[in-house]
Amino acid sequence: MRPLIALAALLGLLACTEPPPDAYVTTSATATAGEPAGTDARNEACQAQPGRAAPADRPVLRAREVFCGGWSQPAARVIEMSGSTTAADLDSIAASGLWRAWLDQRVNCGAPTRTTIAQGVEARLLACTRRAGGWPHVALVVAGSSGPVVADGVATSLPVIERLATGQTTATGGAGGRSAALELAVARLSAGAFGASDVGRYEQLMALGRDLNQTENFAAAEDAYRAALAVQERVLGRDNPNTATAMLLLAVNLSNQKRLADAGVLLDRAAALAPAAADPATPARLLHYRGLHALNAGDAAAAIGLLLQAETAYGALIPASSATRDAEAISLVSDPVVQSAVLGLAEAKRNRAVALVRAGRASEAQAVIDESRQVLRRAGLEPAMMVGRAMRSEAGADIRLGRTEVAAQMLERAAGRFGAAAPGERPEAVTLFLAGQQRIRAGRRTEALAAFRAGAAILRARQIGLAVPLVVAYLDALDQEANASPGFAPALRAEMFGAAQLAQRSSTARYVQQASARLGVAEGNPAVQGAVRGLQDADRELRELFAERDASGGQNTALDDRIAAAQQRRASAESEVSAAAPGYRQLLLASVDADSVARVLGRGEALLTMLLGPREGFVMAVRDGRVDARRIPLGEEAVGALVTRLRQSSELGAAGLPRFDTAAAYELHQLLVTPLAGMIDGAENLVVAPDGPLLAVPFGMLLARPANPDALGGADWLIRHHAIVHVPSPQTLVTLRAAGTGSTAPMPYIGFGDFVPPSAAQFARAFPADRCGRDARLATGLGRLPGTRAEVLTSQQMLGATPDRAILGTAFTFPSLRHQPLNQFRVVHLATHALLPGELSCLTEPSIVASPPAGAASADTAFLKASEVLDLKMDADLVILSACNTGGAGGEGGGEALSGLARAFFYAGARGLMVTHWAVDDAAAALTVADTLRRQQSGATSSAALRGAQMLILDEAGRNLPAIFAHPYYWAPFVLIGDGRRGGQPGPRAAAASPSRL
């Protein structure tokens, strides 16, 4: 089972952790239409319109809903009833009856207080707290002119409630008179602190977080929940118990991204708050999420114990009568608290079954899954999505017990359930791939390929990726079929190439999700912002329609037609995004086929790509319209070990320069290049799309033949055979080359370097001691890079740029960079440190470091994060990042982060990125950058120019340069990422420029 399945199982629960807005109020598309109702306690304008009546013991004469401050949900509801209004009547209505029972399901109220409202009208005031979010809430029972009036709403709506309850309007000057109720409630109103729009913003963010979590977009869900928590903490206070729900949801999304330390801090904070929260399910939810956190941390035994405790806590909230499907039980389950507890209990049981499987107790899991299904069935809550997840968990137990055929059949049934609930979406695709994986293990290749191909069609249509092991199983099936049917081998090898593009690794997916989410809220291009938000809205609409169909049960032709129309709207929204932001495709995990790659490859070019599974992998090549693919016998861990050896022998350490590991360099060549030598040999330009740990390897340093570590100058490096370009994915190359012919910027160059590090105090404020104290200490060790001043000045002079295009020292800040017209320069040079996730645990994105602005209190403003690069506007053929350790140490923390950084620069308008994989020697860096730019200015392509500079160092080592310069530490760290064909010639508007030469 995939690690993320445990949290994905929460989808039904997360959708109900708080009552949906229409459980309390009626969602209205015409919320702004109606009669003016004056202003609330925060002076937000309000309007009233006809609404839906709540349950009541007396006939309802009129029901109205109040909308304030632009909030799309009603801030209050006012219901006029007929009947007597004696003090006993008011006491009875306020203390018991249908209306009070309905109110108690949604808010937690104290005892009624006798009071009066405007004009001395008798009333009963209830001070309440909303279970969803903990917002101050009021309820009122009033002796109206025609009978009792009951009302409730956000605390700040009390003046409007009084006005409507007494029949006053803004035209008559408001309610008038002294309101004892308002005086009693004034402490809770916090009129200066929040209003209906704040509550609306919170609920909007929580709903967005739930939607994103349901699509397993945990990074973007994190952003939504973090923002919701910030709204609550600003209004209610950091230690308010009702912040626990948003805190828990944020924690579990962090945990699912394997950011376990951050999640643990939040879970501990929530533990102190949960017992006093207005939502009685919060303590159970805390135990549940602690169990999921333990499962994510690999501690299945601890998860089992915590989930058992959560089941007990949820069960205590479910009345005994809800265990049978009689009328009383169905009424109870309509209570949001009971419904949340029922769903929580079912999911906690199912999650415990997953934990039992991982603990090696698969034989016990089936009974627990049956219990989970029974909980839902008895309560009349058995949506297809939850049934599909239960079936998938059951199949996981069968797999562990060796029942491959039974598991495959169960997975196919689960895929059918997912297809009924949300056809063409990720859950269906994942389950089809899981079924295919079991079919291929059983030797049923035909059935396996049918399942894989059906799942792949969904992934391509939705432009989403899948976990690597599942995609490797698809490649395995295709490879077996190609070997068994030689006549069909060319087509099957081409299908293998396309299938490999469906794989995604978690760090890349996380960055893409964060970047896409950021574009929807950024303050940059309004057209892009609107288009991305439109796409997000279309996705949400479709998910809501799927949920509606799931809840309705059975066939519903009208609903199916609405879903088809919504799918068409989403397709149109995707087209609008692509039109508004052509670079947006760089942020998608879209796959491309071999034909698309072949069309963009030039004469003398070949593309090499690979995919590494747990135990084996595949390498593939495209050249001159042909495709080939070969199995390799090592998996990700074994290849990662070779990469580690290679990197450790390439970088300067505490003991000096190590002896280069020629054996590892040769073995990697034998694994990755030699099997496809017939396709690659003679290619002038080799485009490499690495995978996993290989993202941290400059491929030019691989060895085509064994070499003597003491005579590296004459070694048969791969760089001697090809100019090499690296790309995050084949799709990146296709997108870049479809974007146009090159920069039309009028100016040749702008460079930034010689930054002044933030102070220890500034770092301490950027990295809080309770979570990130170690980061602050490590970051304080970032030293100044004086060699970058000469590097930038030399480049500026060589390219004929004016002196003011070298921005150095304290002038090199990110505000100054953002104020530069970067889209006017063909080359943008950033010579500074870069930091990667993993190096600093609290740094979640790759970041570039500059000088802090004058007077900055914190070092935060000295970091340019990858997601912030999206806001830059460039038209550069080349961005140079001659920074320390841009390539990182491989795998999730290094190469994957570099891939995300490259995607960000490509989105911003760069066509090529020249980066360093480790801390560089000043002299070698200056020589490499200068000679690359010199060759570009002479007409060489970017890839040929970099290769020429590296060959110069190799050829001159032992002649005009020290012999040690033949060691890869000096010549290999620079790599080119992107479109290596771009030249460095002056643009059409700068043809008269006469750059100097070395």
TrEMBL record:
Annotated CHAT domain residues: 664-979
Top-level lineage group: Bacteria
Pfam families documented for this protein: CHAT, TPR_12
InterPro entries given in the database record: CHAT_dom, TPR-like_helical_dom_sf
Protein name as catalogued: CHAT domain-containing protein
